[in-house]
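It is worth pausing here to work through a concrete case rather than discussing structure prediction in the abstract. The textbook approach is simple: state the sequence, then state the predicted structure, then interpret. We follow exactly that order.
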Amino acid sequence: MPRIISVINQKGGVGKTTTAINLAAGLALKNYKVLLIDLDPQGNASTGVGISQSERDKSIYDLLIKKDSFAECIKKTKIENLSIISANADLSGLETEVANNSQKAFLLKNIIEDPTNNLEKEKFSYIIIDCPPSLSLLTIMSLVVSHSLVVPLQTEFFALEGLSQLVKTIDRIKINLNPNLQIQGIVLTMYDKRNKLCADVEKEGRNFFGNKVYNTNIPRNVRISEAPSFGMPVILYDKYCAGSLAYNNFVDEFLSRENLEEKKVA
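Step two, the predicted structure:
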């Protein structure tokens, strides 16, 4: 089975989707075969890798609710080694549709682990899940199926308070639904080294979470903001801008931590 990583933060506008698509693309560029799952009804991750609305007829909703197969729902992107299961507005009604299902938290896990779906034939090394910006059923589904989490943390005043709420949710999931779940790391986003508040948030975050915080900070960068409108991760849109260089460093650091975890397991 591939390693399943959710990129999660219950607060919107913190660089969550940007981190998900650049992590997925960065791994693909390093010759890992990657599946990106867009679990956000807004479908921004799909847009960010060049999947138009007209190409989302077979989406994560169809996989979860209509029981379509993985083969029908997986689409190749223009990035070599990167495929996606896209999302559209249909996903916003999922919580109501499965309200009476006692196993609803396990919907995604059961599908991914179902041998009849032949997921192993795809030989993915990683599945990266872009979660919605809320602690909804969709987010819980991703927490239940994931091996570990990447948490983008915007360097602003309310960020640490929101993160503490997320950690409490993760702890509850570990007790009841997924005991092996862990935070692989916290990545500081929208960082401006000229701004004292950013430095203060970084200091507090590193003091509290220690080495869970990645060494790499993702800066505020206009190229990061521009890239999605061209349907590209920034690491492909402008390979040499500050944002691209930071995300490449982040991917290297991510892989370094993955290798350490493998050694621990061994």
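Step three, interpretation. The beta strands are 3-7, 34-38, 75-76, 82-85, 126-130, 148-154, 182-191, 213-219. The longest strand covers residues 182-191.
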